[in-house]
Amino acid sequence: DGRPPGVADAAPGAASGPAGRTAARDARGTPPEKEPVRFHVVPRKGWDTQLQGLGCSARNTINWRGHRGVLPAPPHPCWLLPASDDVALQIARRQEELRARGWLLFTSSAEVVHSLGDKAALWRFARERGLDEHLPQHFEEPEEAAYPCILKESGGDFGRGCHIVESQENVRRVTGARGGGCSLRPDWVLQELVPGREELSVSLLVDRGVVLEAAGTAYEFDVEAYVWPRVRTLNTAPQDIPAEELAVMSSFLEGYTGICNFNYKRVPGGGVRIFEINTRIGGDLVTDVPAPAARAFFERLAALGQHAHA
């Protein structure tokens, strides 16, 4: 029926809204005690209880961010999975060292991770491959923009460094530009604001460009224009992902290996506008995807064996 594996079949009839979120959390159960850890999700994001409750021996207790110090060797072979885009890039850059210390990795080259996870690099990547029609309109200079629009730092995540701006002056204040000029630095992205109260988040398990697992979540917010998480969520529900939308996402993932997360909206007349691709585990997978589907991600990864494909 065109549905990606691991979405609708994982939790038929799952409840939606606040009650659904409570049910999804409850389904994770009581964290088991003293099981050998199979998956370490880093750095700490406050997800340890939810991950333990999945029942697949996943933890979120190590606050390693990849820049300083050496990550200790695990006591037994264990998967190391990123919970931030920056750590995803550091794992890709240091994969030879980390594998030598006994960590199991599911990652790509640093170039591939950067081209998808960095918001400015993503726009260049899409334009070079003729995929920019699936992204919001991009503005090179503030005077070209149709306001209001979205201004965001290229390396921000979880809503950090993202703003709704109403004018060139607003852009200048946010970016700290001085003088009469208002040219954007390369670490900022200015793009179309796509209105709509519904936004979708899709987590994917991808092996060399092939999607192995997918789980979709639809979020309904209380306003048309917002920056998450500075908005009130009215409803959260599992979402079937149409084959044509999955095909669009797959077109960005040639050569990619890892877990990633797409955030996007559907637009009138068909098509999608992808806001970002996070090259990491997202909060949707940990807290909002029904437990059976979330657990399927980790178990499918474990079944791939001990060799990641770069």
What descriptors fit this protein?
3 domains, 310 residues, globular, single chain, disordered N terminus, five-stranded antiparallel beta sheet, four-stranded parallel beta sheet, alpha/beta, D-amino Acid Aminotransferase, Chain A, domain 1, 10 helices
Put simply, the count of helices is 10
How many strands in all?
12
Query: What sort of overall outline do the alpha carbons produce when their principal axes are compared?
Result: globular
Secondary structure category: alpha/beta
Largest sheet: 5 strands, antiparallel
Biggest sheet: strands side by side, in what order? Answer: 10-9-8-11-12
Keywords: ATP-binding, Nucleotide-binding
Region (Disordered): 1-35
Biased composition (Basic and acidic residues): 23-35
Biased composition (Low complexity): 1-22
Description:
The chain has helices at 17-27, 48-53, 85-93, 95-100, 110-117, 119-128, 168-175, 243-251, 283-288, 291-303, and strands at residues 39-42, 58-59, 78-82, 103-104, 149-153, 162-165, 188-192, 198-207, 210-221, 233-239, 258-266, 272-278. The model is unreliable at 1-26 and 306-310 (pLDDT under 50). It has 3 domains: 39-106, no CATH class; 113-134 and 195-308, D-amino Acid Aminotransferase, Chain A, domain 1; 138-192. Helices cover 28% and strands 23% of the residues. The protein has 310 residues and is of the alpha/beta class. The longest helix is centred in the last third of the chain and has 13 residues, at 291-303. A hairpin with an 8-residue loop joins strand 5 (149-153) and strand 6 (162-165). The strands form 3 sheets. A 5-stranded antiparallel beta sheet has the order 10-9-8-11-12, sandwiched between helices. Residues 23-35 have a biased composition (Basic and acidic residues). Residues 1-22 have a biased composition (Low complexity). Residues 1-35 are annotated as: Disordered.
